[in-house]
Amino acid sequence: MWNNIKLQQCISHINCLPQLETNDGLIQPSITISRMTGSGGRTVASKLADCLQSYAPSERRWTIFDRNLIQKVLEDHHLSARLAEFLPESGTGTLTEIISNMFKSQPSAASIVKQSVETIWKLAEGGCVVLVGRAANVITAGLNNVFHVRLAGTLEKRVARVETVYDFDHPAALRYIKSEDMAKKDYLKEYFGRDIDDPLLYDLVINTDELSYEKAARLIADSIIRRFDLEPHREVVAA
Amino acid sequence: MVSTLKLVERQLAMVDIRRRLEERVPQPGRYITYEGIAFGPCLLISRECGSGGSLMAQLAGDRLGWNVFDATIVDEIARSAHVHQRLVQSVDEHVHSNWEQTLRDLFSDDLSDEGYLRHLQEVLMTLGHHGNVVIVGRGAKYLLPSQCAVRVRLVAPLETRAKRVAERQKLPMEVAKSKVREIDKERAAFARKVFQKDIGSALYHDLIINTSKFDEGQASDLVLDAVKQKLGVDSLPKTMAASPLSQKINSSPGAPVDRAI
Question: Is the pLDDT of residue B185 over 50?
């Protein structure tokens, strides 16, 4: 499970970005996934990247940045510097303005939050990424190439999943879900002044209680293919 | 009222055909409860005013070949003793007596036997039991088993919705805005009063679609994909759907326009 969510893939993705500016004229979509804990965020992201890979330009690879991987990029100065190179001149003004507006009422917001805004923005702008969590939907709300999804589910079903995946007993799973959900809600509220459950922050909210992760990923992928008019690359067509 | 009765007759004729087919080949999307009662397949649409619910219901209904029962039509059936009776008597006695208990458990003393709400719930249960139907609003998603339906909610920013309503009804923007707010409030109050539920909660829907981000075609394709993925029911390609006859019957001439948005 999640075998395509790897730091190595993220590093390769970032290292390739500056070159793409010159040879990749087409707009490539990105996806943000916000999720209730236990509703399948990483699994859906992983399957989604697989579904969309055949629609990416042949030199690109759909890459997943979850909360941990975004954190690692932030902590790695080399990667951050590499990412900074990608930012087009015209975009710099926009991004600086956006960050300053975003935190107008929060001038004291932790610099790590401001840095993560910059990182997430740049990753999304480059296309072919799935960004899981970290308020990526709010941060990239102004980018036309980004599709925003939220995954939801009843507490009962999510607890059952967390028990299985993390091998928790029922009370531990319940505690874990409640504390994670609260932390995510607070993060969005505190730094961005938004309510994580507001459906208008997303293009699509999917309840994974009765739609398998595979089917949820397929639904999102098909929507993106239609929205951005994507076509399978040559190898797939030939096959 | 004539068109409502016609729609009910048409739906019952379809049910009859489906039953005959079912004897030969199982039909996709049917869900059987523990009590052995079949429901679905259904598409249940809930919507914020001005988010495009009626159009979505029509587009999806045409491509699925299913009749559309919007909130006004469902209300008309519930209020007309004759039409209500015609629909409800199409249900087998043992199924009906099973519902008696379900409805009593759900709504305890709130419902008198002949009351409107009681009829409304019987109408929704009957439509859900027969299946192959699109139902817009009226809380069907709280009554019918979630496994038998794709439950969709359509939302959009207030400005976008008010603009649509203003254009369609030729109203000043401010008037449209307050109308939209008022209808949303009524619908939320209905869900709260009758079902004690939060109308917008993601937990009662399979999909919530922000229609300001999709064009009509993309949004209906998405819903039909969900019907295929969850219920295994295929839809017709766009070019083969939409018979003018079904549109004529499905639209209720007496329906106030602002309730049908």
Answer: yes
